[in-house]
Amino acid sequence: MKYPPKILAAAVLISILTASSCSGPDPDTKAPDSPVGLITNAGDGRVTVTWITVAAGDLAGYFVYHREAAGGSETKSDLLNPTTLTITGLTNGTAYRFAVTSIDEAGNESDRSTEVTATPNDEESLTEVGWEAWEAGEYETASSSFQAALSHNQEYAEAFTGLGWTALRQRDLETAAGRFDQAIQRDSANEDPRVGGLIVHRELPGGLPIAMTYGRTALENDPDYVFSHDPTIDTELVQLMLAQVYFLNGETLFSYAQVLLDDLVPGNGLDPSVSSSWVVDDTTYSTYAAALLALIEYAFTLHGG
To answer: What gap in Å lies between CA 157 and CA 184, rounded to an integer?
Structure first.
């Protein structure tokens, strides 16, 4: 049977419309953009990661991935809506890598962001890093680590001690003196800042009385003192510097200097009342003061300084 052209055209149109309504829209397979602008902020056993919001109308949220930088298993966060996450329970001193993805409502997940690395730390571990840098002569790095430790705990005495010794090695004596004083105020049982204070204050104008107090106290509290970060700074050196401070304070304290020197240079034979005894290292001096000063300098050479 033949149908008129108008009927055939109508049938074709119905067929096209029916097929179109049954097929529906194409599925969403396009993932959103990867997050950018990752920033980390490390703390005590934690790292906070933040990033820039991804512009996508159907954005469902984000996933954060982290693992130890040295390798190992990876951890994936729950779906997040805010653009920040604080990850806790991390090991201080261990470096971690972090990456973020975005995901839309259709379940399309983006490629990962560029990885960033962060190391959680507390004031103790940061101070240990500072001392390692100090011992290696990397004083800028040491100072930064000690300052970072104080950002965790503003009352941490060991960080003030580290800053004092760092400033001393950099010959910033005023700063060193202040840092040592701050350390002693927070931990009076530690002799390291007192010994540092002795070294610094003996060179500062008007600092001799403070240097004398620090030196005496350090020797009384720890007769076998050794600075763990530089073993050349020990009880003998403290005695030498204190003898020098006594000498610089004037004639009334010469006898105190002599007592320390008798221990450091046994048999030196100096006697303030016997001019024939004013001999040091085969050199004769015209005054007891000159001989005593020469003996101090001679004792420094014996100590290695």
So the answer is: 7
Q: Global pTM?
A: 0.72
Structural domain boundaries, residue 132: 123-303
Confirm whether 26 is domain-assigned. no
- Classify residue 233 by burial, with Cβ atoms within 10 Å: 0-12, 13-18, 19+: buried
Question: Are 164 and 193 contacting, i.e. CB atoms less than 8 angstroms apart?
Answer: yes
Return the pLDDT at 115.
Answer: 96
Q: Which helix (H) or strand (E) holds 150?
A: helix 139-152
- 136 is written with which tokens? 């290696």
- Rounded Cα distance, 103 and 110, in Å: 6
Same domain membership, residue 172 and residue 83: no
Asked whether the predicted pLDDT for residue 168 surpasses 80, the reply is yes
**pLDDT for residue 219 is more than 90:** yes
Q: Who contacts 186 (Cβ-Cβ below 8 Å, separation ≥6)?
A: 155, 156, 157, 160
Same domain, 86 and 165: no
Residue 38 in tokens: 């990752």
DSSP string across 29-86: -PPPPPP---EEEEETTEEEEE-PPP--TTEEEEEEEEEETT----EEPPPB-SSEEE
Each residue of 231-251: pLDDT tens digit? 999 999 999 999 999 999 999
By DSSP bridging, strand 84-87 and strand 96-104 are unpaired
Q: What is the CATH number of the domain that holds 103?
A: 2.60.40.10
Helices (H), ranges, 227-287:
235-249, 254-264
- Alpha carbon dihedral 265, 271, 277, 280, in 10-degree steps, equals 30
Domain membership of residue 175 (yes or no) is yes
Task: Assess contact for 134 and 166: CB atoms under 8 A.
Answer: yes
The neighbouring-strand residues paired with 49 are: 40, 85
Instruction: Give the pair of three-digit tokens for residue 131.
Output: 């001392």
- Asked whether residue 102 is assigned to any structural domain, the reply reads yes
- The number of folded domains in the chain is 2
